[in-house]
Amino acid sequence: MMNRNEPNFNIYERERIILQCIQNNPKSHHNALVKIIVPEFMAKTTFEKSKNSLLNKGIIVAESKGNMKFYVSNPNYEEQSQQHLEQNTNKTFHDLKLKISKLDTDYPRKDIDEKILIATTLFKSLLETDNGFTILDSIKNPKKTLYRDEHLMIQQLLSRVFKIIKNDIDYGLIFPTIVSYCQAYLPKYAPDT
Predict the structure, then answer these.
(1) CA 6: distance to chain centroid?
(2) Which single residue of 24, 54, 115, 136 could bond 59 by disulfide (Cβ 3.0 to 4.6 Å)?
(3) DSSP run (H or E) holding 71
(4) What pTM did the predictor assign?
(5) How far is Cα 69 from Cα 163, in angstroms, rounded to an integer?
(6) pLDDT digit of tens for each residue in the chain (193 aa)?
(7) Contact (Cβ atoms closer than 8 angstroms) between residue 182 and residue 123
(8) CA 66 from centroid of its chain's CA atoms
(9) Residues 157, 122: Cα–Cα separation, whole Å
(10) Where are the alpha helices (DSSP H) in the chain?
(11) Is the torsion defined by CA of 28, 31, 34, 36 positive or negative?
(12) Cis-peptide, bond into residue 142, ω within 30° of zero
């Protein structure tokens, strides 16, 4: 059974097949790629969805030559994906700081289900944002923590959210649910057998 937080590898495998086919057949236009891939690897609609996903992610780009469309790997993908990660991570970080600054007054007024939703969403976003900064650190300079202040601020924001929850009247109901939810984002030790 697949965990809801695990990626759907079928999607990524299909994208990889298309990308590999494009790289192996650089002179093949759209219809030629369809003939190579369909039906051996996937259905035509699946091919179209996966190809469009690669285009939307910027992994491949389309080039028209006459009335034919060709696909090529995006030569700037690495740089663009890093810029995209940096922009999203910074925007999310600043958005989270703003949301949490309002939490002291807003949180106590919510019902239990809203409190749980708010807290779990904040924890997930904080952990994802910290991961974003960690990845950027590893890309830019793996020997230094360039985002030290941001990592520390995320740690402080997590602490602040925990304190708000701990001081809430519904703490006994909220805390176990949030901890259970957060287990999906925490390391799981599985000794080798």
Answers:
(1) 11
(2) 54
(3) strand 68-73
(4) 0.78
(5) 56
(6) 444 444 455 888 999 999 999 999 999 999 999 999 998 999 999 999 999 999 999 999 999 999 999 999 999 999 999 999 999 999 999 999 999 999 989 999 999 999 999 999 999 999 999 999 999 999 999 999 999 999 999 999 999 999 999 999 999 999 999 888 888 878 888 887 6
(7) yes
(8) 37
(9) 9
(10) 9-24, 30-37, 44-56, 77-101, 103-106, 112-140, 148-166, 171-182
(11) negative
(12) no
| Phi, psi for 186 (deg, rounded to 5) | -110, 155
The CA distance from 54 to 164, in Å, is 42
Amino acid identity at 72: V
Q: CA-CA distance, 139 to 124, in Å (whole number)?
A: 23
Which residue, among 153, 154, 171, 152, has the nearest Cα to 163 in the 3D structure? Answer: 171
Residue 79 token pair: 């740089």
Q: Phi-psi category of 66—alpha, beta or left, where left has phi over 0 and alpha has psi -120 to 50? A: left
∠ CA 10-121-115, rounded to 5°:
140
